[in-house]
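User: Let's play a game. I give you a shape written as C-alpha cells, and you guess the letters that built it. Ready? Here's round one.
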C-alpha cells in the first residue's frame, strides 16, 4: 500500500468506476449542492471562498 496521496493509476488495487455510477452520483448530489448555495448563508460562504481564491491566485509565486 502507498503512503499518503501518492496513489497512481498503476496500483494493483485501483479499479475504474463505471461512468453510469459517477453520473448517478452527480445527479443525486448536484441539486443538493445548488440548494445549499442559493440561500443567504450559501452566498456568504461562496463570496468568502471566492475572495480567498482570488487572494491565493494573486499571491502565487
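Assistant: Ready! My guess for every position:
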Amino acid at each position: 500500500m502507498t503512503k499518503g496521496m501518492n496513489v497512481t493509476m498503476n496500483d494493483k488495487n485501483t479499479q475504474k468506476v463505471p461512468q453510469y455510477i459517477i453520473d448517478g452520483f452527480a445527479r443525486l448530489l448536484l441539486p443538493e449542492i445548488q440548494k445549499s448555495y442559493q440561500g443567504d448563508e450559501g452566498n456568504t460562504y461562496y463570496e468568502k471562498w471566492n475572495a480567498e481564491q482570488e487572494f491565493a491566485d494573486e499571491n502565487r509565486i
